Amino acid sequence: MTADAGDAQRLTEVLRANAESLIDKWVSAVAGLLRGRSTKTELERDFREFFTALLPLVGSDGRDVGGPRFTEIRSLLEEYSRSRVRAGFTPTETASSVFSLKREVFELTQDDPSLHREVLVFSGLLDSLGLLTFESYARVREEIIREQAEQLLELTTPVVKIWEGVLAVPLVGTLDSARTQVVMEKLLESLVETGSEHAIIDITGVSAVDTQVAQHLLKTVVAARLMGAECIVSGIRPQIAQTIVALGIEFGDIVTKASLADALRHALRREGVDVVRREVG
Amino acid sequence: MPPRSGGPEELRISGDDDVVRVRQLVRTYAQQTKLSLVDQTKLVTAASELARNTLIYGGGGFARVEEISDGRRSGVRASFHDEGPGIPDLTLALADGWSSGSGLGLGLSGARRLVDEFDLDTEVGRGTVVTVVKWKR
Amino acid sequence: MERVPILKIGGVLLVSIQIDLHDQSVLALQEDLAEKISATGAHGVVIDISAVEIVDSFIGRMFATIASISRLFDADTVVVGMRPAVAITLVELGLTLGGVRTALDLERGMKILGQLGRQRRGVLPHSGELERDF
């Protein structure tokens, strides 16, 4: 349902003529809703911009909200949602900012029955825009979660130098394919940066591996070899050993050691370092 | 000649130099799309294999590179076109170690492992188009 | 076509690849090296690829070929400085270097050649773990 061009124009006129008071009431309503977490000045700036972009769209029922006419208002709403997510507002609070305008427009036009049809269409438009806000909100939140997951990944997988020429990566928790890949790339980079010829991948703290993860581990060991370094895998737990065998993954001539300590001893010997126990006391 | 907006760009493949040029063009697009260094290297290597195939088996042709998006993420698409003899047995051509000319026979199967999407369109006597896509992680 | 220069340092030939390799350059390098090893009687070849951004199957096969050629002249080959991204890509590609020795950098590559040379002359035992010099 779309309104006649003439009628839509009349509603536009009414909205334009009452812009100031409308925006004012709209800002007050939303400010009350947000209980002071957004200043009126901020809201007024955002809403004025939104209102200006909205006026030329009056007459549309919002079904073509993905179209080129809506480009400007879409990016405005996207930006609005983004700042709301970052500031910790709920999706309802965010979308209500758009829906609140409806009530103000209803009140403004209720005494003029000839406008009812257009207001109904306008209401559909605001519904679409409100839903758009909702979607942007969800998308931005997903982005943030993804960013945080990546940051967490960086934090939880340190590559440490435990001896001159020996690096260690203690892996903890559940290994998924993406995480293994990131860790392994970081390990290979570190080999070059520190000029280390040995790396110990300790999986004592790993609860489970699947085929893909085991493959990534294997590929890392082979890649390290191509670079002129040797990887030692330590701390393979019995269940994981069983999985590896059951999956038919060939570890071939890769050096594996029961514990990180054994692996370190092996690496040191290869580095030409002997560890000797000295009589104490 | 750096691409301006990530729009498609085409390069003729008729000699050795062109294989190197295709690598450079693909790298420019991969950097522009901000693929990770490893993904850049994988895509450029795949492009190198495929461009050489186009030259050796297809008797030359052209490469087309462009930046693409599926709404959620961006990526780089590269396609390699020739009007050569085509590939009679696809299964065989995609198997590791198979090769009808020089090279190790890793060209097609190797390139496929390096990219996210791999599409091969071939007709005996008409030619071959190989299209690969690498998405930003 | 650009040619890759080959430097002689003592009994070792150093090939440092600083260009984007054309297939023709690869073939030319193999020929040049064979001639140079034969002419100089070098006991080792170091190929420094720390500046190389991609190694495809054609370039990868060159390492194995050079190693085989060197072996015919009783010389060893070490590939040094492979970048992590290149190594990961080669593994994914399914390419092996046919048993070519590798080292992190030029210095270590030279050291390995020294050890292999001594082993050849019977100064070091052939079997068992290679002890590192310190």
From TrEMBL, chain A:
Residues 156-267 form the STAS domain. It holds the Pfam family RsbRD_N. The lineage of its organism: Bacteria, Bacillati, Actinomycetota, Actinomycetes, Pseudonocardiales. It comes from the Bacteria. This is RsbT co-antagonist protein RsbR. PROSITE patterns: STAS. The keyword Phosphoprotein applies. InterPro entries: Bact_StressResp_Reg (IPR051932), RsbRD_N_dom (IPR025751), STAS_dom (IPR002645), STAS_dom_sf (IPR036513). Keywords: Phosphoprotein. The keyword Phosphoprotein applies.
UniProtKB/TrEMBL annotation, chain B:
Residues 39-132 form the Histidine kinase/HSP90-like ATPase domain. It comes from Lentzea xinjiangensis. This is Serine/threonine-protein kinase RsbT. The keyword Cytoplasm does not apply. Keywords: Kinase, Transferase. Signal peptide: none annotated. The keyword Nucleotide-binding does not apply. SUPFAM superfamilies: ATPase domain of HSP90 chaperone/DNA topoisomerase II/histidine kinase (SSF55874). One of its GO terms (molecular function) is kinase activity. Pfam families: HATPase_c. InterPro entries: HATPase_C_sf (IPR036890), HATPase_dom (IPR003594).
Automatic annotation (TrEMBL), chain C:
Coiled coil: none annotated. Pfam families: STAS (PF01740). InterPro entries: Bact_StressResp_Reg (IPR051932), STAS_dom (IPR002645), STAS_dom_sf (IPR036513). Residues 2-113 form the STAS domain. CDD domains: STAS_RsbR_RsbS_like. This is RsbT antagonist protein RsbS.
